[in-house]
Amino acid sequence: MRIPFPLHLSLLPFAALLLFCHAPLVAQGDTKSADEAAATTGPKKQQIPFLRPQGSYADLPEMGFSPMSLLGGGGSLPKPFFRFVEAVDGLAKVDGAQVVFDLSGGASFNGPQLRELERALARVREAGKQITCYLENADSGTFELAAQCDRVLMADMGALDLRSPAMSVMHMKDALDLLGIQVEVTRVGAFKGAVEPYMLPTMSDHLRAHYEAMLRSINDDVVRRIASGRRLSAATVRELQAQRLFTAKEALGKGLVDQLVPWSGAERAIALLRGDEQFELTDAGPKKKRQSRDLMAILGSLLRQNKEEEIEDPQLVVMHLSGQIVDGDKPVPGNMVSGPAVTKLDELAANDLVKGVVVRINSPGGSATASEAIRTALQRLAAKKPVVFSMGELAASGGYWITTIGQPILAEVSTITGSIGVFGMRFQPGALMRRLGVHTEIVRLDDGPLMDATDRPWSDTARERMQGFVDEVYARFLQNVAASRHKTTDEVDAIAGGRVWSGQQAVDNGLVDAIGGLDDAIARVRAAASLGDDVEVLHVPEPKNFADSLFASMFEAQVQAGGDAAVLRAVLAECARYGEVLGVVRDALVQDGMPRVYAMLPAGLRVR
Fold it and tell me: Is the model's pTM score more than 0.70?
């Protein structure tokens, strides 16, 4: 069997370690007894809890194995966001009145996560704790958190980038024309944001106006957060956003920070603030499991596949449905695959120890058929126990479709949702093939097989048939929304047609019940199921570990499709920002002759 190159490379370090390291790793250092050490330390210093978030955070991160990251020097994987929220809440319970939030680690949070953290920091202040924040360089998201603290210290050589939210949409029409690739589209409604990047070289005026209105809605919450935290007017914050870049001295002069300190870290900054060094910062971050220092035990834990925690006591479950929605029977990292999702939802419905479920959604949509399969499974779940939906950064198109079961829906102001629309699309590289001298002969009994011919456009009959599929699926979408939101299909159609909305706009339009985060959704389920605070919350599914990801993404791909397919998947995974485009391309490469109808957010649409 031929081993794919990235896998071979990744196993070399393990082989070398096994050859030269047979004994447990033993820490070397001072061997003084505890009494001797205590005798020389002097007066006990005050312990000040601190948190220092670093890197990116995901609601339920997956352990992924990326050959491209390995070859390129690697990069840190997302960390569990809600474990970090628990650590912030833990600051409210520590001894003493002072806690420190060190935001110099370059942490990255999306809009809904910032709102969750705003509420958590408010709970810390309500517990009587004073929160001191340390900044070096800060972007807008970092500063939104800093503004929630009682005192903000900034390194004197630092800078603040107070950028207002914006979106970047890549249009590919000219490039496709240059390559000789035609995109054939069937859609419903006048709004065509999902297909404009393939059909127009630049954004249409009406779509730009719609996106600007959504950005204003999202930015209103950003401005509120900064203005209330720093005691500034909303108009002042908008003026500062327009100026965008500030030196540390300018940020101090504008009232954005309270004091400048030398660029020497949070601990020295706190010492300067206090005027003494009779303290030490103690890490209050999420606790990590103690790991064996024996090399063989470390390797064994890496290569041991995870088993999901069994539910043995009454519990409230947070079911995470994340990624592009696709049809299939096997899990695919980064995707919401209909088969495994339905199976898990049915298991929760059948388990009497599961007393209620919060369904946390982060999805740009995807396959209409997969969305319907998951929606009906959620209906079965809701028929047996309380269900509340909590929308994260994205819950649009197919991600909204799955919520249409008549249960409460919560979203954050900066959630992107709606996009109630469907389309059919395929790439037709006939001109490119002719340039390359490639010609395809299709031997057939009738014109039916020509629908999936890649070298020629659809016939009028084929296009009419495909339009019929799209019309029927869109009508089903409208009916689902109308029934679940107590509207008529005409009322839904007026706010549908593919239009995307912020969470606040969705509340105003009646597509979402209220603004709120996961904590609010959990509180609603507790109340509906008459559960006390002693009933624990379990997040599922269990994130994959190194072994799960390695075996699934490498060995299975090797067996089923060969090494080239595994490498291709790895390359595609690196282009996650445009996952919606890649999803359509993947489906376009599947030559099964079935028409594809998508309920999907416009390609690459993210607010930054």
Answer: yes
